[in-house]
Structures are given as C-alpha cells and as structure tokens.
C-alpha cells in the first residue's frame, strides 16, 4: 500500500473504530464483534507503524497506552474543581432546600447518582481531547491525559468541533474490580480495598499500559464553561454533553421540589446493589444556571449543590473467600 492509500485507509479505520468504540463503550450496544474491532485496530497500528506521521491526536490506537511517563506534570484548573458539601439525612436536605428557596425562590433540582470514583477534568479544543487532570487540591491537579485516553468511553474526538472543559468521575466497575483483585490474589499481590482506590491507583500509574489494562470507565457530569456556550441549565448541559458523545449517567432526574428529590434518594438507596458500579450517595444540584450564579460558592464548595451520603452500612462482603468489613 503506498502512502496515499495508507492515508486514506487510516482515516477510514479511525472513523470505523471511533464509531464501533462509541457503540460498545458509551451506548453499550456493539454493532460488530470484538474480533472485528481488534482486527481493525491491528490494521491501523500496522499503518501507523509504517507511516508514523499518519498517527493523529485522536487515533484510537492510543487506547492501548503509550510509553511510561517520568512524572506527572501539574495542571492549573482555570475553573477550580470544588468539592461538595454533604447531607446525611432528610433533615439536611430540607434545610438545603429551605435555604435555596429563601435566597432564589422556587428552584428545580437535578439529582444524579454520586459515582464513587476519582474526579477528573477533561479539556477539548475544536472537538479534540487535549488534556485531562485530577482534581488535586481543586486549583492544581496532575496531568493524566495519557491514562485517560485509555478509557474507552472517553471520546478522543467530539461529534462537534467545540472547545470545552467537562468534569466527570472516572471509576472501576464492580466486575472489573473483582477480576482485578482475583488476579492480584493469584499473584500474591496486595488487594485493593474498594473500586474507588483501584480506580485512583490505576490513574496514578505513570505507565498508561497499566491504566489501559484496568477497564476503567467515565461518567461526565458537568461543563466548566457552560455559560460561554449559551447553555442555561444543568439538565441542558448534561443532554448537550451526551449529544457530543460523552457517557452521561442515564439515572439522572430533574425534580420540581425537595419531596421528589427525597423520593429519588430513597429509590436509589434501595436499588444501589443492582448497579454495575459503586455509588456512595446522590448529588443534588439547582438546575438553573442563573440561580446557581445567584447562590455562588463558599471557599471550597458550590452553594447550589449538595451530596447526600448513604449511611455506611456494616456490609460483610466476601471477596473470593476473604472477609472484608467495609
Ligand atoms: N461523584 C459524582 O458522581 C459527582 C460529583 C460531583 C462533584 O464532585 C461536584 C463538585 C462541584 F464543585 C460541583 C458539582 C459537582 O457535581 C458532581 N456531580 C456528580 N455526579
């Protein structure tokens, strides 16, 4: 194959692999068998091997992970990554709602499952993924771009050529966590205590091939520059992120009042064990960005959101014959 044919075929393969990867990892509805995906990936890797200049920044071959880094660079968050204030009971939620209504009047909320993983920020320029970072201290995080590229549900290129910064939670599904601990137990290695630690440990590896082997996933839950894009509410922002190709948690619900919020909290406290990933509560956000602006933030938390934490149950989980009290 000459260079021109290689260039054309590489572009074709990228399109196919982007589409198949999106169907499989974001929609959870693959249209081709894994073997077909792997065959196309091998073909693209061979072309990039022969013509390295054909490797683009959004090439799906980066899902496999590049060479290990010496260290993580630091990243400054232009929009700080704050942390959520907590609520531990229905009373706290009603207090939150009362304060909101006193300050901005009637307010609709968006409820989301609180994914128990690692908060990350992902930045795109003209639709291409350019940088990803951990929360760090909220202002300065670690550049984990190469590791995040290995998360199959993170789009390397958006469906629109937009520049944005999205926030999300990287996590390890329960099944991946159990399999990883089985492998580590078989190798006599120390086990991870829970999926959150396993996800954080995987993303803090300097060798992206380790992250690539850990089957991590990512739900995106916010836009840092939503108002610049003319979006007026959080629910619109989530729909927009989904339309761009991000994986947004489907279990979100817009609630007209705090009673509906409390119903959502109780519903998911019951249904939590059925989820294929761990959650440690529910995040409640005022939906209107205008009201969010009015409410503002404290030094470390937004005043327009709160995290309801499920009570830590005394659960005895038998992990492959090991009694673990969490
Ligand atoms: N773990 C989560 O599933 C989750 C976490 C956060 C945050 O940490 C968070 C922090 C802020 F300062 C503002 C909004 C947020 O929204 C969030 N939404 C979520 N769904």
Looking at this protein, list some descriptive labels:
4-stranded antiparallel beta sheet; alpha+beta; 5-stranded mixed beta sheet; binds the ligand NC(=O)c1cc2c(=O)c3cc(F)ccc3oc2nc1N; single chain; globular
Short description:
With 326 residues, this protein is an alpha+beta fold.
Bound molecules: the ligand NC(=O)c1cc2c(=O)c3cc(F)ccc3oc2nc1N
Tell me the major beta sheet.
5 strands, mixed
Give the C-alpha Rg: 21 Å
**Low-pLDDT sequence parts:** none
Number of strands: 13
Order of helices and strands: HHEEHEEEEHEHHHEHEHEHEEE
* Helical coverage, percent range: 25-40%
Mean pLDDT: 94
- Name the beta content range: 15-25%
| Number of helices in the DSSP assignment | 10
Strand-helix topology:
Layout: H1 3-26, H2 34-50, E1 74-76, E2 86-87, H3 90-104, E3 109-115, E4 118-125, E5 128-134, E6 140-142, H4 145-148, E7 164-171, H5 174-186, H6 195-203, H7 208-213, E8 217-223, H8 234-244, E9 253-255, H9 258-271, E10 279-286, H10 289-295, E11 305-309, E12 316-319, E13 322-325
Parallel strand pairs: 2-11
Antiparallel strand pairs: 1-6, 3-9, 3-10, 4-5, 4-7, 7-8, 10-11, 12-13
Helix pairs in contact: 1-2
Bound molecules: the ligand NC(=O)c1cc2c(=O)c3cc(F)ccc3oc2nc1N.
The ligand NC(=O)c1cc2c(=O)c3cc(F)ccc3oc2nc1N is lined by residues 82, 84, 112, 114-115, 119, 169, 221-222, 283, 302, 305.
